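Notes taken during the Thursday session

The instructor put the following on the board and asked us to keep it in front of us for the whole hour. The protein is YciI family protein. We were told not to look anything up and to reason only from what is written here. First, the residues (118 in total):
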Amino acid sequence: MTDYVVMFPVDNEADWQAGTEADHQATYDTDAEFAALLRACGGAVTSGAGLTHSSQARTLTRGAQQTVQVTDGPFAESVEQISGFYLVTCEDYDALTEAAQVLTRAHPVVEIRPVESS
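Then, after some discussion, the predicted structure tokens were revealed:
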């Protein structure tokens, strides 16, 4: 089986925190539907996590003097932050992509990347 990471790079933390229990349940239901679709094509969700409270994150960068700088917040050199991810296995990349389309109902962007096994 090939391993992939399915990431949610642009979920809005403020929208999630302002959401109702019903809003949250709709997201959970969508994620569960993805897992079921993935199982139906022979794949599986092997792990995953929601990365909540990105405003409490810290970023470490190595400077020109080889010193490490620690800053508060998710201030990486990008405009998007990862809000969660799944690690999945699936032999059929097209089937994984098709199953992941359901996730766009709850996550504005879904990114799928192959993972090198060690």
